[in-house]
Specification:
globular; 673 residues; five-stranded mixed β-sheet; 16 strands; alpha+beta
């Protein structure tokens, strides 16, 4: 898998999103911004990324870059961290399974199995979730390691009353790295308690778990409290496959398990058979540890079924409406790996009954033979990925016209660039790569340029509107602040675009002049309580042929009714000039002969503060989920700046104090054991 480090090419999976956040975090640190809460203008009309998303995996790359004095390029550092996490998973699994109390044979074979899982891209712990040819779920890679360690550390606290500080630190790191996996571990700890509670020490066990749970909540409160409080400002895209929110259903999940696809896709079901052996051996031996692991596997297997099977019972779960149930495949893999190790150990114990001096060598040979199908299949999987990476790298490198266009864009005044969607000429911008690995828009994101491109995560409230951008409609360029368009030379561009750079393969066009803000006429006021309803209504407004004549909509959101029926004023004749555009702020000079509504072409977020001639003014949302203010008549200087969530600073200080306090508290609990 080392090509993941040195073959540096754009991705069209989630790694593109994560690389963008690493770049932006690095830029924020260099600019003196808050690295724990900044604005990402390149992402889907702008987004407050770390208010709504875990940040430790990205910040860690930036810190490592600083500690190594930038000797290693930032992208190489990012890829190297990904590679190390992939390569070292067996070490984490081995340590965790031994810490829980499983035998050396069980832990060793479980560690071997962990890096060799194969599924039909189900977002689990198989490496297809992480590599370039897969999904690029970088933060889940951290969550995978930390989930194993957190389960092991918490189990030790529960059963042996030691390791409190390790459990606190690991759970805190997990919350900051992957909220969904922190959720999975939290529910798993509840199951572990039920399967390990002892009548004579139940109160003490509950107290220990309360301490181990409370400290991570305090330490990470600066992250999860704003996440919950500002949840209305993160998008839940209706374009996402329904099964991601709802689950696959019992028939599909059981079919994946029984057929071997869940653990051994495309090869002999060795791991699936060992998992079954492990489950049977637990049923025979009935040890407390084994029963607990089997119970955890079955609980998460059932929860993986999702709403098609469990229906409204799912609504009883905490945060049920925000769960991406398809990711519970990782929880099934987590405890499935342990069952696979237990199954291998059961076979080893059977063999030991006929002990012979040559038995260890025979067992080793059998283990190697058993792993050969998995090793061969994974080797083929990675080799094909390497071939695709090299083809992509070669074809992009051979496209000198693409590099010329990008260098030209870099030299132009800052503005968003459009290079096609999947529904227009976007598929033609694929560098002649014979498979769908990268397109021109991915190269723009890879280089950190502002784009209007297919959303990777559809995170911001206005992100889904991008799917309906019409490159032949002049008013769409103004609305989305698209200043440049890259079009294949073989396609006739709309007449309102002006060519500024021609190459053999592409033409770079400039759209009619527009500023980062514009005067709008608000002729309707509406309210909605849900993000889904907001997207539906904004999309209808966006697609209306007489959109400009109908005017904009002022949104009271989230609200169950219109707060005030009054409409903001309209500027009849005005002007807007960009004075300075920075990642988290912009300065404008605006003028109008009357007071009017100024719309800033970025996603609305309560973190934006706007001043007019230095005096603060109220902000509000207008379609399509953009930031807007009312500006009085005359010429004014308007300054808009993203400010960090005010609670984060005090909560971060509280978290640091809690971390310091956790040391003596953990020591006292250990001594009292």
């Amino acid at each position: 898998m080392f090509p993941e480090v040195y073959v540096q090419i754009p991705s069209n999976n989630d790694d593109a999103f994560h690389w963008l956040l690493v770049q932006r975090a690095n830029e924020a640190l260099s600019n003196g911004e808050n690295i724990l809460d900044f604005w990402t203008p390149q992402l889907e009309m702008g987004f407050a990324s770390f208010v709504h998303y875990q940040h430790l995996p990205h910040v860690a790359v930036v810190i490592l870059d600083r500690l190594t004095f930038g000797i290693v390029p930032l992208l190489t550092m990012f890829n190297f961290v990904r590679y190390l996490l992939l390569a070292l998973l067996p070490v984490t699994v081995l340590w965790s399974m031994r810490r829980i109390g499983l035998s050396w044979p069980a832990a060793t074979f479980g560690a071997c199995a962990a890096s060799l899982l194969s599924s039909p891209f189900l977002y689990g712990f198989d490496y297809g979730s992480y590599v370039w040819r897969g999904f690029g779920t970088y933060t889940q890679l951290w969550g995978m390691h930390l989930s194993f360690i957190a389960v092991a550390a918490t189990h030790t606290v529960l059963t042996q009353r030691r390791g409190h500080l390790l459990a606190i630190i690991t759970l805190s790191l997990l919350v900051l790295s992957h909220l969904l996996y922190a959720y999975i571990v939290a529910l798993s700890v509840g199951v572990m308690f039920l399967t390990n509670v002892r009548r004579d020490s139940a109160v003490v066990q509950m107290r220990d778990l309360a301490v181990v749970g409370a400290f991570p909540l305090l330490i990470t409160s600066y992250m999860w409290l704003p996440f919950l409080r500002y949840g209305a400002w993160v998008n839940l895209s209706p374009y996402l496959q329904p099964e991601k929110y709802n689950g696959l259903g019992a028939p599909a999940v059981i079919t994946y398990l029984v057929s071997g696809e869940l653990f051994d896709s495309g090869r002999l079901p060795v791991f699936t058979l060992l998992l079954a052996v492990g489950a049977v051996s637990i049923g025979i031996a009935r040890t407390r540890l084994g029963v607990g692991i089997l119970a955890l596997f079955l609980v998460w297997l059932v929860l993986y079924f999702g709403r098609p099977t469990l229906g409204r019972l799912y609504d009883l779960m905490p945060l049920a409406n925000t769960l991406l149930i398809h990711r519970f495949s990782g929880a099934v893999h987590l405890f499935g790996i342990m069952l696979i190790g237990i199954g291998a150990d059961a076979l080893w114990q059977v063999a030991r009954r006929w002990w012979r001096p040559w038995l260890p060598y025979a067992a080793a040979a059998v283990a190697v033979v058993a792993l050969l199908p998995a090793i061969a299949e994974r080797a083929s999987f990675y080799d094909q990925g390497l071939q695709w990476m090299r083809v992509t790298q070669q074809d992009i490198a051979a496209d000198a016209d693409a590099r010329t266009i990008i260098e030209t864009i870099r030299a132009l005044p800052r503005g968003r660039t459009f290079a096609g969607l999947r529904t227009d000429y976007g598929p033609q911008m694929s560098f002649d790569i014979p498979f769908n690995s990268a397109r021109f828009s991915d190269l723009l994101v890879y280089d950190g340029l502002d784009v209007i491109a297919p959303p990777y995560n559809s995170s911001s409230l206005s992100s889904d509107m991008i799917w309906d951008f019409n490159y032949r409609r002049a008013e769409d360029y103004a609305l989305f602040d698209v200043r440049y368009a890259v079009v294949p030379a073989s396609i006739a561009a709309p007449p309102f675009l002006t060519p500024i750079k021609r190459t053999t393969r592409y033409v770079l066009y400039q759209a009619p002049p527009s500023a980062h803000a514009e005067w709008v006429s608000v002729r309707q006021r509406d309210a909605t309580a849900t993000q889904g309803d907001l997207v539906t209504k904004d999309r209808a407004w966006l697609l209306a042929p007489d959109r400009n004549a109908r005017g904009s909509i002022r949104w009271d959101y989230p609200a169950h009714g219109v707060v005030d029926a009054n409409l903001p004023p309209t500027c009849s004749r005005g002007d807007v000039r960009d004075d300075a555009l920075r990642p988290a702020s912009l300065d404008l000079t605006v003028s109008c002969d009357s007071s009017g509504t100024l719309m800033v072409k970025m996603t609305y977020d309560p973190g934006w503060r706007v001043t007019i001639d230095g005096a603060p003014t109220d902000t509000f949302m207008v379609s399509p989920a953009y930031l807007a203010v009312v500006v009085p008549a005359g010429t004014h200087h308007v300054d808009a700046q993203y400010t960090s969530v005010p609670e984060k600073g005090p909560l971060l200080a509280l978290g640091i104090l809690a971390l310091v306090a956790a040391v003596p508290v953990s020591r006292r609990l250990r001594l009292a054991a």
